[in-house]
Specification:
Elements lengths: L2 H8 L4 E5 L5 H15 L10 H9 L5 E7 L2 E9 L9 E6 L8 H15 L4 E7 L3 H9 L3 E10 L2 E11 L3
Antiparallel strand pairs: 1-2, 2-3, 3-4, 5-7, 6-7
The structure holds coenzyme A.
Length: 171
């Protein structure tokens, strides 16, 4: 696809973002299951299993989880976590269905999710990203996230850089 076609896809009017509710359990489970292999290398706050999905959809919590739907079908998940543990600065995370990456969904869903944090009066949003995740890092840089620190962590049998970034509400 050309970049024009990609951005058109990302601006489709049929892309809808909502908070995850009980009724989303099965759809979220399917989204997790079909992305477990492809996405887990870069997105690993929890395993992408049906039981994680059910926990997210069914358990009451303060942490916020969101689903993006393209033409009514689950296309991505995002989250603002940390409220349950008492933090006022949540940790952001997102993944887009591997078949739908690169079409602008991640950018739009990230912007919308961060907007939810501002609506909840969070003073800032933080995130962590692996150093070799060029696409995510370039998106976060572009949205104004500033690198706070980086450290070496273990991923499988590798040592890899993990970068912590932060976006202030009134930056
Ligand atoms: C990272 C992710 C959420 C981005 O969502 P996406 O829908 O694929 O990305 P978009 O199409 O919205 O592109 C976002 C930006 O990524 C960058 N980008 C896109 N393709 C890229 C590529 N091949 N290489 C480097 N950067 C790229 C661009 O800056 C792009 O912005 P643009 O609008 O200027 O083109 C998605 O790829 C994903 O889910 N990856 C796996 C899980 C993951 O890494 N999550 C983040 C963990 S911190």
């Amino acid at each position: 696809l050309t970049s024009k076609a990609r951005s058109r896809t990302g601006h489709r009017a049929d892309l809808a973002f909502t908070a995850i509710v009980r009724q989303d359990a099965d759809e979220l489970s399917d989204l997790f299951e079909r992305n477990a292999d492809s996405v887990s290398r870069t997105f690993d706050p929890f395993p992408l299993t049906r039981s994680s999905a059910r926990r997210i959809a069914l358990q009451p919590r303060s942490d916020a989880f969101y689903i993006a739907r393209l033409s009514g079908s689950a296309a991505a998940m995002s989250m603002l976590r940390g409220f349950d543990e008492g933090y006022d600065v949540p940790s952001f995370g997102v993944f887009v269905d591997s078949a739908l990456q690169g079409y602008g969904i991640g950018r739009r869903f990230t912007i919308w999710t961060i907007e939810q944090a501002w609506i909840m009066n969070c003073p800032a949003v933080r995130l962590s990203v692996y150093g070799d995740n060029a696409r995510a890092r370039s998106l976060y840089n572009d949205l104004g996230f500033i690198e706070l620190e980086s450290s070496l962590v273990r991923r499988g049998s590798d040592q890899i850089e993990k970068v912590v970034m932060k976006l202030e509400r009134h930056a």
